[in-house]
Amino acid sequence: MKRRGFLSIAIRIAGGYGAIFLTGCDLMKKEKIQNFGKQFNYLKDPDLRKREAGDVTLTLDSAYVSNVEFIGQSWNNIRFINCEFVGSHQIRPKSLEKVIFENCRFTGVFNLGVLKEVRFLDCQLVGGTHLVGDTGSRSTVFERCIFEGADSEPNSWGSVGTYGEATFIDCRGKWFDISGYAGLTLVSCEFDEVGCQPAGGGEGLYAPVLLERCKLRGRFNMVSADLQSLTIRDTVLDHLDLTNATIKDDLVIERVRGGAIQVGIKEAARAFSMKDSQIHGNGISVCYVYAGAFDSVLIERCIFGGDVTKPVIIAGGFDPDNKETQPVMTRRLTLRDNRIPFLCSGYLNAGDVVIEGNTIESLDVQQGRLDSLEIAGNTITRSVNFTGTQAKKSKVQRLAKDQAKLDGSNIKLS
User: Fold this and answer.
1) Closest to 212 (Cα-Cα) out of 252, 159, 248
2) What global pTM score does this model have?
3) Angle CA(329)–CA(330)–CA(332) in degrees, nearest 5?
């Protein structure tokens, strides 16, 4: 899809971080699962277990699960403690319900079926491990878990999550993909170079996603993700990349501190709001929001870094090369009480645009098509560029002599 107006910015992060966790620290000797007698038989034959033991919780402690197939079983009301799972596709139950994995370690590839009320507590997934739950998974929680890919090469990354809902609480990860195709929540997590693909792959799912109190080092990759909504609060991040993502409803960013934000999403989202945040840039870029993707945009009480070579870009929606009528894409855009060295809001195709109470060095609103433009109460120390912008109504604060560039514009100055 060709975006209208302005540019899309590609960002590459160089360098990296040291390991943020240790794995393999549990040296407790484990017994082969085949030696667990009746407990092993109950895992292989859940009907036998039901006949002989009913619904009593089945507990397995310090089992080494490898070189044995579990395929097609329904595991219910089981607690795995200090267990180790090793293998590639040999462990593929049909479903898990009311199952707890506590202080367990996974190495390999695991499809655990439909997960309902399943908890992973203090678990480790290492060496490029892949662990997934099927469509229909719900109430699946990973808490205080550690995820570590084999190395920084994407083909060596691991993955964890479900094709249903997934919640991650106080987890740590590096070189991993995190997923929750029908819903994803991250709370108090610390991730380093992580991919986040809540949905996609032609499934027709759009996930509501919530991030709270997280620390996201390196690139947090949400490229081409399919989202119902995305809310990020009280989070520190280095680089949020939403290039070509789809968002059906709202994107909300509140009390976020970090480097670069890249919101070059597809058109037809409902609303974007960013409040009380500090976005300082990462040396390459600061903030890019494709305004034409949203019905409304609100940015207030934010502090941005950047300079004349690294603008804050809240722009796009109008294509000057398209001679056909272009309907309004952004019904309302408001920027209020922000500090922005260089604000670039060109090529807008908008209804009402309000730029109010900001501290700005340079302002660029060129080549826009607007129903109304209001610029009031700002401190603008350098240039203002209105080149080519047409507004049906405009109200612009008093500017210094020769401060504004008006070539091809119908903007009237006070």
Assistant:
1) 252
2) 0.90
3) 150
